[in-house]
Specification:
With 656 residues, the protein is α+β, with helices and mostly antiparallel strands. The chain has helices spanning 3-19, 25-111, 116-121, 159-166, 211-214, 254-260, 297-300, 302-320, 325-352, 355-359, 378-384, 388-391, 406-419, 463-477, 487-504, 518-525, 527-544, 569-587, 612-628, 639-642, and strands at 132-137, 142-145, 173-179, 186-195, 201-209, 227-232, 237-242, 263-269, 276-283, 289-296, 363-368, 373-376, 421-429, 435-446, 452-461, 508-516, 550-555, 558-564, 597-605, 634-636.
């Protein structure tokens, strides 16, 4: 009997003693009800305890299930982030290879041959990027290679060679792993087709890459049972690393899946170890390839399973210790609540700061709907020199990193807002004032109502590519020995001058300069002395011509000079005499070889010819007469002198 019942009974007894008579029927009913209530309370407490334990067990099971779901959901997103980062790295590797292949293709199709060893020495091709770089002709015979032992090998039986020979895809082809014919090493062949001027098949350029290069990716987040792979849409793996690389994996399903949807995830069990894995795949933009990342669920849930066993142990102890059940349940609920909060916080962090944002080599900028900068990554700081404090919080157009091409920037912004995506080449200014050549890729993020909430811009440094383009343009138009413009540039300039002169009725002159005695210098003193003589001659020509005139080296010891806007023939004669005097002064005394002179032929437009072939032919004829008349002199072309020219005289126009 509890204290309340005891007090109630004592009050009844006191009343009986005071009144002298037993309680009435109503009083008996009250006592019976009190006893019934007391008995029910004795059963109610154990029942309440059982209900509480049941509630606790239901809560524990529910919380464990929720935590497991949160962890797996986070693992799926993290695997997707790893696949996205792996995709970006693989795309950079393939695009770098494509740039190299395009460079070799350009040099071959422009010049008819490529000195691969020289290209490696000049840094046009990275020597550490590929196992071997080769060039094969239309018959499959290797013409040039970074491995001298590979020259002459026949690759016509290779599948990638037959594909290029059959069709010009205008794309970089990525083969499956094949053994190299010389070294025996396994390589993935990155190939591009070479074409003749008429579009016919001329061969291929091959970049042999180590398969491990494509899967050289941080594996800390993969785990011991994780797998990373690059597979073609044909189902052939280009590269694969992981715990079961020698046996079929569930990632084999990624290829047919990627043909339907460009990116996604799924779960699958592998035959060798029976482990279920979470697999994320992404199809590469512009390439028939799929990147695949797989992580074992057992490793993902390992820490969770240890926590789950602790939870069950605590709940089991609580069942035997009824008196401590409230404490145990409360502590467990708080522990589960803290775990849930940590899991939610981790999931929010993953959404805000993804693996791609942290590991990419390109600068990334995140702005809000007003284009106010919210965040930049470390690569942005390395690229531009601006720390986050310099730009964060500022509107992009008013920040130190504002566009320098204001009109084009407004047009890009309008296109971005209308289409959600824009790319292009832009120029920006570093913090130190230097100009940067960048490739920008900008996208929009939209809210549930469809309005723009954020802008994401990715900046890729293309300064090295632009420098390479400028160097190629220089190499195509300049003579490497003397630094003067070459024959190709000379003929382009000649055609321009003729067109301008016809349109404006102007006059200009062409001088054809040939060194006398150059062959004897080469024979007696060697080619190095001959090269020095040509270089000094080029310097003399630069110093002798007027401002606005241009000297060219068109081959061997042959030079030309274009004299623009001349008033009469005397202007050309003055320049010719200055050149002859300069050659005599430079090579007639001192340590230089003697008996060097210059024979010069002069043709004026339009008297000496009204088109390019005529001017070239007549200037050459005048030079021939200068040589025949004793050398080290000049002759002006006239109609009368042309009648006395020999028929078999060599013509400059013949090699134009």
């Amino acid at each position: 009997m509890n204290s309340a019942s005891f007090r109630f009974a004592r009050a009844l007894a006191h009343r009986r003693r005071r009144t002298g008579r037993p309680p009435g029927p109503r009083r008996a009913v009250d006592a019976t009800f009190l006893r019934w209530g007391t008995d029910r309370l004795r059963w109610l407490l154990p029942a309440l305890g059982v209900a509480l334990l049941l509630f606790v067990w239901l809560a524990v099971v529910n919380r464990i299930g929720q935590e497991r779901a949160v962890i797996l959901d986070g693992a799926v997103r993290e695997t997707q982030s790893l696949a996205a980062a792996f995709e970006q790295r693989t795309l950079r590797t393939l695009r770098d290879a494509d740039l190299t292949a395009r460079l070799v293709k350009y040099l071959y199709e422009r010049h008819g041959s490529v000195d691969i060893t020289n290209a490696l020495a000049q840094g046009l091709i990275r020597p550490d990027a590929y196992l071997v770089v080769s060039l094969a002709d239309a018959r499959g015979r290797v013409l040039a290679s970074s491995d001298p032992n590979a020259v002459g090998i026949d690759i016509a039986d290779r599948e990638y060679f037959r594909r290029h020979a059959a069709r010009d895809s205008a794309l970089l082809e990525v083969s499956g792993p094949v053994p190299l014919r010389v070294s025996g090493r396994t390589a993935v062949q990155l190939t591009r087709r070479l074409n003749r001027p008429d579009g016919a098949f001329a061969g291929i350029v091959l970049l042999g890459a180590d398969p491990a290069q494509f899967v050289d990716f941080p594996r800390d987040d993969l785990g011991a049972q994780g797998t990373l792979g690059l597979v073609g849409v044909d189902g052939v793996y280009r590269a694969l690393i992981g715990s079961a690389t020698a046996a079929p994996m569930p990632i084999d399903a990624a290829t047919p899946a990627a043909l339907k949807v460009s990116a996604g995830t799924y779960e699958g069990a592998s035959a060798p170890d029976g482990a279920t894995r979470i697999v994320a795949y992404r199809r590469l933009d512009g390439f028939p390839l799929v990147v695949v990342v797989a992580r074992a669920k057992t490793e993902i849930l390992a820490a969770f399973e240890r926590r789950r066993m602790r939870y069950l142990g605590v709940a089991s102890a609580a069942s035997g210790l009824f008196g401590l059940c409230f404490v145990v349940v409360t502590a467990l609920a708080w522990q589960l609540k803290r775990s849930q909060r940590r899991a939610w916080a981790h999931a929010r962090e993953l959404r805000l700061v993804s693996k791609v944002f942290e590991t990419t080599a390109d600068g990334i900028m995140l702005t809000d709907a007003d284009d106010r900068i919210l965040r930049v990554n470390a690569a942005f700081t390395r690229l531009t020199g601006y720390e986050p404090a310099d730009v964060v919080g500022k509107v992009l157009a008013e920040s130190p990193f504002a566009p320098v091409d204001t009109v084009e920037a407004h047009a890009r912004m309008a296109y971005l807002q209308a289409h959600g995506y824009v790319t292009g080449e832009v120029t920006r200014q570093r913090k130190d004032g230097a100009l940067l050549a960048l490739w920008i890729t900008a996208t929009c993020a939209h809210g549930d109502d469809g309005s723009i909430t954020n802008y994401i811009r990715v900046f890729t440094d293309i300064s090295a590519l632009k420098a390479t383009q400028r160097e190629l343009e220089y190499l195509a138009g300049a003579d490497m020995l003397t630094g003067l413009p070459n024959r190709r540039t000379f003929h382009e300039r000649m055609h321009q001058l003729v067109q301008n002169a016809r349109r404006r009725g102007a006059r200009f002159g062409l001088m054809y300069v040939d060194l006398d005695g150059f062959k004897q210098v080469n024979d007696r003193h060697g080619h190095e002395a001959g090269d020095r003589l040509l270089q000094r001659t080029a310097d003399l020509l630069r110093a002798s011509v007027r401002a606005g005139d241009t000297a060219f080296r068109v081959g061997g010891d042959e030079f030309t000079v274009l004299l623009e806007n001349i008033a009469d023939s005397q202007s050309a004669i003055t320049v010719a005499e200055r050149i002859i005097s300069g050659v005599e002064a430079a090579f007639g005394a001192g340590g230089e070889p003697a008996d060097i002179g210059a024979s010069i032929g002069i043709a004026l437009y339009p008297d000496g010819g009204d088109d390019v072939p005529a001017l070239l032919r007549n200037a050459d004829a005048a030079m021939y007469r200068a040589k025949s008349g004793g050398r080290n002199g000049y002759r002006m072309y006239t109609a009368a002198s042309a009648a006395n020219a020999p028929d078999d005289m060599p013509q400059l126009a013949d090699v134009a």
